[in-house]
Amino acid sequence: MPDLRQLRTFVAVAEQRSFTRAGEIVHLRQQSVSKAVRELELELGDELLERTTREVRLTAAGRVLLEEGKRALEVADAAFARTREVGSGLAGTIRIGYSPAIGPSDQADVAQALRSDRPDLSVVMLEVRPAALRPMLRTGELDLALTRIAGAIDPALHTIALRPTPLALCLPAAHRLAGRASVSLRELEGERLLTASPPGTPYTDLLLERLAREGVSVVPTEARVTGGNALPSQLASHEAVALVPVGTPTPHDVTSVALDGISVPLLLLWSAGLPSPAVARLRQTMGVEAG
User: Fold this and answer.
1) Between residues 249 and 77, the one the model is more confident about
2) Any residues with CB less than 8 A from the CB of 10 and at least 6 apart, and which?
């Protein structure tokens, strides 16, 4: 069965009308070029070239193979290029899992960074329970993951820090701090802080630690939420405030106020190995050093 190497060599000879010049193009010695073309002729059972001491001419069969062969090589080269792009993570579909603590602005920034000059790349964002992110990376259900907490060292996974995410203060429209342009952390002293999970869980402890570092004590109050954007909708019923990523949408009876001096990590995880071009791009555009 003829192979692509033979076809590529024949096309080079047919276009150059020279075994020597064709060898320079396909990086083969003249003897190897002649052998490849001869093997192709034997496979097809037809003479493709008329060889004289002065020139190389195409036979009728050779003219057909040149025309059809060039199209076949273009299709093959496009398929190989597409496969390399998909394999590298800059084409096809990238599945990114994110914990509920990752806000819509971070999701949009990551997708935009990956797709900035790759219109054929599809980025699928999947909200996943924090405990499930790592197993889904190991099994290949996810290509990348976004989280706030690094967790235990895992040799099967690698991680880098992207630029941190500033937090905003969400509070009921009737709250004493509503209508302010910004609020300092110390003004939250004694407030009920609505959290998606109780103290003792990583992200809630992270928020409480950030406040305690500034000498602020709050009353953590666990909400019953089904997703990262559900927290603001429960503030009025709990008579509480919440710390959410900037850009988190709020219902009509809740307002968002700028909060001075607090941000949370944004971490990117992937299966251990050489970083893919997708990871490299996020590191370049959203990494801590890029900020």
Assistant:
1) 249
2) 36, 37, 40, 48, 62, 65, 66, 69
**Residue 249's Cα: distance from chain center in Å?**
24
pLDDT digits (tens, 9 = 90+) for 198-216: 999 999 999 999 999 999 9
Residue keyed to tokens 């960074």: 113
User: What's this model's pTM, rounded to 2 decimal places?
Assistant: 0.69
Backbone angles phi, psi at 242, to 5 degrees: -145, 150
The C-alpha angle 214, 219, 222, rounded to 5 degrees, equals: 120
Residues paired with 287 in a beta bridge: 162
CATH of the domain spanning 89-291, picked from 2.40.40.20, 1.10.357.10, 3.40.190.290, 3.40.50.2300: 3.40.190.290
Non-local (6+) Cβ contacts of 244 within 8 A are 103, 167, 168, 170, 231, 232, 256
Question: Within its chain, how far is the Cα of 201 from the centroid?
Answer: 27
pLDDT of 84 strictly over 80: no
Would you list the domain boundaries of the chain? Answer: 4-85, 89-291
The answer as to CATH 1.10.10.10 being correct for domain 4-85 is: yes
- Collapsed DSSP state (helix, strand, coil) of residue 93: strand
Q: How far is CA 27 from the centre of its chain?
A: 37
Structure tokens at 46: 């037809």
Indicate the SS3 state at residue 113: helix
* Helix/strand/coil percent split, the chain, to 5: 40, 25, 35
